[in-house]
Amino acid sequence: MNCMETHLNYEEQLEKFISQGMIIKDKKKALERIKHISYYKIKEFSSFFMNPDGTYKKDTYFEAVIQNFYFDKNLRMEFLKCSEKIELSIKNKIVYTLGAKYGAFGYLKFSNWCDRKISKENILKEEEKFRKKIKQKMKLFSSNPIIKDFIKNNPDEEFPSVWRIAEILTFGEILRLFEIMSQKIKYLLSVIMVLK
């Protein structure tokens, strides 16, 4: 391999930024930053400030680049928090609706709540695939307190109640249930989502 890159210590990495025209107000603090945020991560966030020739635009400060990095990181964390709330809410509403309409285990009989436009053969395939997935997930999540509690108190039940499946299914798996629901159930779900 003929690689042109060589190991640079933290001071040399900072010097590389300086040689390209970046301004560093406080070298000591910058050194601490570069020890925790990789050179290439900083370079990625500084690319906005670069000229086509690979030098930095006038008045490009290392501290501004770091500020952008943390702003982006915090924004992603906030987005993650919001998306998690939405995901949990949708999962909860779907299992709540199925539980209210069909009871604890009615969700396992797909013909109860699936869209009638889907052939019986395909509904049975979906149900079989789903049951296998639930069995796998029950093993995988057997140490989850909610699943552990269900197994302990219901040793003869092969599948958990509908309200507990939200604990073991991914958002995509729950959305698949929504996809194949009848319009009537989707309508009930939309009413619940608006009211609660």
List the helices and strands and how they pair.
Blueprint: H1 10-19, H2 27-36, H3 39-46, H4 62-102, H5 110-113, H6 120-140, H7 145-153, H8 162-165, H9 171-180, H10 183-195
Question: Secondary-structure element sequence?
Answer: HHHHHHHHHH
Stretches where pLDDT falls below 50 for ≥5 residues? none
Major beta-sheet overview: none
Gyration radius over CA: 27 Å
**What's the number of extended β-strand segments?**
0
> Based on CA inertia axes, which overall geometry fits?
elongated
Query: On the 0-100 scale, what is the average pLDDT?
Result: 90
Give the end-to-end Cα distance, rounded to a whole number of Å: 61 Å
Helix content: 55-70%
- How many helix segments? 10
SS-based structural class?
mainly alpha
Beta-strand residue percentage: under 5%
Quick recap:
This protein has helices at residues 10-19, 27-36, 39-46, 62-102, 110-113, 120-140, 145-153, 162-165, 171-180, 183-195. The protein is mainly alpha-helical and 196 residues long.
Q: How would you portray this structure in words?
A:
- The protein is an all-alpha fold and 196 residues long.
- Helices cover 66% and strands 0% of the residues.
- The protein is built from ten helices and no strands.
- It has helices at residues 10-19, 27-36, 39-46, 62-102, 110-113, 120-140, 145-153, 162-165, 171-180, 183-195.
- Helix 3 (39-46) packs across helix 4 (62-102) and helix 4 (62-102) packs across helix 10 (183-195).
- The longest helix is centred in the middle third of the chain and has 41 residues, at 62-102.
- The termini are far apart.
